[in-house]
Specification:
heterodimer; A: mainly alpha; B: mainly alpha
Chain lengths: 172, 116
């Protein structure tokens, strides 16, 4: 991600940060279907497919570059990061697919009814927990980028706004 | 056009992977509920027809009754806070476990003065 962050342009980095925060919030809401309700849980996660696609599109150059160089000389962290990203994609797909197969609100509202399977429900719960762990590792590996970008695009503008708003000394 | 192609690649990968998972699940027969029809064991399925009215069977659901399936039970606020703390906590623990040792090693390397 260090390479990724230096290569991406400023507006793209900002978009990526906002999108990542959005995905993180959606993930936290989706991880608790008891509170949000099944309908919100299902529609929100289906809609997040678009956000995840955009997330991948914004990292496309990095994905292509590392795919081409994976068996050549690359850093260990980049290699681990790449493998972890694939695992996240695979288990994310598993969560989505098993979620679609046990859908109680989204698919029935479209007139599609699938036979309920205990196996897919178990798999949905297990893969969701695994995705939580993988997301934690993903966040940890990108932590320096998150801190830097958050500071640059969110904290610094806020600090700058407050510091310029201070009343000037007019005692003289 | 380039972006559209990339979107198609992502969606194709998602569909192929998802299809493969469904196929593997169905081929292994893990999605077929087996009520042990041939083994003579007790059959755990909802009562049908005349069985529904028998003693010991579950009474039919009233209209408007609170359906507690995946929606869950318990207090709304407490559950929400607990779930949020649990999920954010797992991520935070992993971040601290990976970032902290890395930063300590980095600092040690910076402060290390080779013997003269």
């Amino acid at each position: 991600m260090a390479n990724e962050s230096t290569k991406t342009s400023t507006p793209q980095t900002k978009t990526k940060l906002v999108l990542d925060i959005l995905i993180f919030i959606v993930f936290l809401v989706a991880m608790d279907p008891h509170t949000s309700g099944i309908a919100i849980h299902e529609w929100l996660t289906l809609a997040s497919l678009a956000a995840l696609t955009l997330h991948l599109l914004l990292s496309w150059d990095w994905i292509v570059e590392i795919t081409q160089r994976f068996f050549k000389k690359i850093g260990t962290q980049t290699r681990v990061n790449y493998v972890l990203n694939w695992l996240l994609f695979i288990f994310g797909t598993l969560v989505m697919v098993s979620g679609i197969l046990i859908s109680e609100a989204a698919l029935p509202s479209l007139g599609i009814r699938l036979p309920q399977g205990f196996f897919w429900r178990r798999l949905h719960d297990m893969s969701a927990n695994l995705v939580l762990l993988l997301l934690g590792l993903h966040t940890a590996l990108h932590w320096s980028w998150i801190v830097k970008t958050f500071d640059r695009y969110i904290l610094q503008p806020i600090v700058a706004k407050f510091s310029t708003g201070k009343p000037k000394d007019v005692s003289a | 056009m380039k972006t559209l192609g990339r979107i198609l690649i992502i969606l194709t990968a998602f569909t192929v992977l998802g299809g493969l998972m469904v196929w593997v699940g169905n081929v292994n027969g893990v999605n077929t509920p087996d009520f042990a029809r041939n083994s003579g064991e007790a059959e755990f399925r909802p009562p049908q027809g005349d069985e529904a009215g028998q003693e010991g069977s579950r009474p039919p659901r009233e209209v408007g009754e609170n359906h507690e399936g995946r929606e869950g039970r318990g207090s709304f606020g407490g559950r929400w806070v607990f779930s949020l703390i649990k999920n954010v906590g797992v991520i935070a623990v992993l971040v601290v476990a990976i970032v902290l040792p890395k930063s300590i090693i980095k600092k040690k390397r910076k402060t290390y003065v080779p013997p003269t």
